[in-house]
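Question: Send over one sample?
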Amino acid sequence: MRLILDVFKRRWAKKLLVVGTWPRSGGNIEALVAWQRCEGTTAKYNPLATTKKMVGSLPLGGNPDQNNGNPVQEYPTKAVGLEATRLTLILPYYVDIVRHLKAGDLDQDILHDTKVAAQLATWGTGASCPKSLLASRA
């Protein structure tokens, strides 16, 4: 079952990289798959659990009070979810994550860059889970 889920996570990662115009490198794909696995959300079309409100989005589970009143969103389509994620990533809070996505080496930077780790904490995921998953693939 996990293999099937990772296939979907890889597809979503590749689509996000296209939407963001970032390289579809193995390192970027692996990092985004690990990040999705760590989020573990059931939010529709939102595997990185962004809280970006978009036209047609609704709070996960219909609960606007979750996440201290800044709820993870569910999106009406994959395209809307991908764009919401891209728009969230390009916020100034995530400049180093995007810098490494542009370089195609996000996997190595989750493992070694303290700025990326801090920005994953700002996102809400933290770096320990993605680091552990990426380190175990070797």
In short: DSSP finds eight helices and two strands in the chain. Residues 36 and 115 are 19 Å apart (CA to CA). The helical segments are 2-20, 26-39, 66-69, 78-89, 95-103, 106-112, 114-123, 128-136. The mean pLDDT is 93.
